[in-house]
Amino acid sequence: MVVRPKIIYIAPLGDMEEEHLRCVAESITEQFGLRVLIMPNQGPPDYALDARRLQYNSNVILKRLMVLCPPDGVKILGVTPFDLFSPIFAHVFGEAQFGGKCTVISSFRLGGNPDSSNARGCPPLISRLEKEAIHELGHTFGLRHCSDPDCVMHYSTGLQCADRKFAFFCPPCRDLMLWNMAGDLFLKV
Ligand SMILES: [Zn+2]
Ligand SMILES: [Zn+2]
To answer: Which residues of the chain fall short of a pLDDT of 70?
Structure first.
């Protein structure tokens, strides 16, 4: 019998608050209906450090996550407190392999405007981390950016955009996500 991977792993890359990781894990389970396991801290992603920019290359981290992902993992989400860049952006909140297995998010730039709040009354950093995690995991399930500004798949140009949207999918994105997830979980061997 072929055992198909069904777990979403969270890989802390550096010191992250346990409560933050737990909230992100709960939020992912709520949205994707999958089991989420938090791995031990994998340490700072020094292998991805660009010494000139003093930032970490998200592409390099994605490649590393591919190796770190346990065999029963359908996706792996790296969460790091360090600042990320990609070759085409000066900095990124996160990056994902579109339709792939790996994604990484950073809390480095998500802590501003501490007075803003959200419907659940969570501190903004946690709420932003949750949205960023769901957004990037959405990309790994083949979702593109959505024009609905309330939808978690809306492209955030900054923290204001990120705070405006909800931590869940609009109905069309949700349908597509469930359809693609079925493909990831049940059709591929
Ligand atoms: Zn995106
Ligand atoms: Zn949408």
So the answer is: 1-4, 113-122, 187-189
Distance in angstroms (rounded) separating the CA atoms of residues 120 and 143: 25
Instruction: For residues 73 and 123, give the distance between their C-alpha atoms in angstroms, rounded to a whole number.
Output: 29
**In angstroms, what is the span from residue 170 Cα to ligand 2's centroid?**
4
Q: Write the pLDDT tens digit of every residue in 27-37.
A: 999 999 999 99
Separation of alpha carbons 81 and 41, rounded Å = 12
SS3 106: strand
Amino acid 160: pLDDT: 84
Proximal ligand: closest to the CA of 133 = 1
Q: For residue 77, count other CB atoms closer than 10 A to its CB.
A: 31
The predicted-structure confidence for 96-124, as pLDDT tens digits, reads as follows: 999 999 999 999 999 876 555 554 556 78
| Ligand with minimal distance to 172 CA | 2
| pTM exceeding the 0.85 threshold for the entire prediction | yes
Question: Which class for 179: exposed (0-12), middle (13-18), buried (19 or more C-beta within 10 A)?
Answer: exposed
Task: Give distance in angstroms: CA of 172 to centre of ligand 2.
Answer: 6
Q: Determine the distance separating the centroid of ligand 2 and the alpha carbon of 63, expressed in angstroms.
A: 28
Does 30 participate in catalysis according to the annotation?
Answer: no
Query: Going from the N-terminus, what domains does the chain have, and what CATH number goes with each?
Result: 7-187 (3.40.390.10)
For residue 74, the CA-to-ligand 1 centroid distance in Å is: 19
